[in-house]
Amino acid sequence: MGPGARQLPAAEAAAADATAHLDWLGETLDRLAGPPTAAPQAETLWVLVGPERPLCGPLGRLLLEQLPAEGPVGLVGTRLIEVAQADPALLARLRFHLPAASTSDELNERAEAIASEILRLPELPSVVLLHPTATGTRLARRLLLAGARSPVDGGPETLSPRDVVLQAVANEAIVGRLAVVLAEAMRAEVRARMAAADAARRSSGKQLDALRQRWQVLRQESITRELVELTSARQVARARAAAAEAERPPALDKPPPLA
């Protein structure tokens, strides 16, 4: 079992552990502050989370190609940043770039760093997370921050002041959602690395087969050449022997024996 195959279960577990809890936090936030309202695409901050480590094949490029055409962008993942360097239009929209998580132990630390970077930006109507799905390179969208929410009449009763509860729920939901998205991106990265390794292994196998076939052809040609040379040398030797025999003077007749 390769390193990618060993890392995949941990990445999948990290991505799945907090999903139910975060869904509950989102529902609680909606009950306290109201459901989010849609913001114009040009005023939305798109935060794309992608691969951090190399040897992921075309994953970074395929993810960047799916970015919305308008609105500011934040990139999370070293491979995304490397690909984005060749796109001046995208760099003009870039608000920040940060590394993603390489292991499950880094998820919370990276999530807190991203949350801090987002909250330092000027106020935006909404922040949407984009990340690859577990089954491919297609981007999934998750609303992280809503600039405006529909008003709620009444709402659930809380023991602490509603503003305090709302702030605590929002903070936990932001960091937790970022951690889950980082785990999803890490899972897609591991799968991409495994696919790239399999493709490299198949390519190496094909090249090895081609080299073996070429070696067999060359070996057969060498054997054939040696046989031709041996046959030609034997024929030359026989021809020389026949020529020498023809040039030899005839033997004199012996006198009959005396009676």
Structure, described:
This protein has 259 residues and is of the alpha/beta class. The protein has a single domain, classed as 3-Layer(aba) Sandwich (Pyruvate Kinase, Chain: A, domain 1). Helix content is 58%, strand content 12%. The chain has a five-stranded mixed sheet with strand order 3-2-1-4-5, with helices on both faces. Helix 3 (59-64) links the parallel strand 1 and strand 2. The radius of gyration is 37 Å and the shape is rod-shaped.
Layout of helices and strands, plus pairs?
Blueprint: H1 3-17, H2 19-33, E1 44-49, H3 59-64, E2 73-76, H4 78-84, H5 88-93, E3 94-98, H6 107-120, E4 126-132, E5 139-146, H7 162-247
Parallel strand pairs: 1-2, 1-4, 2-3
Antiparallel strand pairs: 4-5
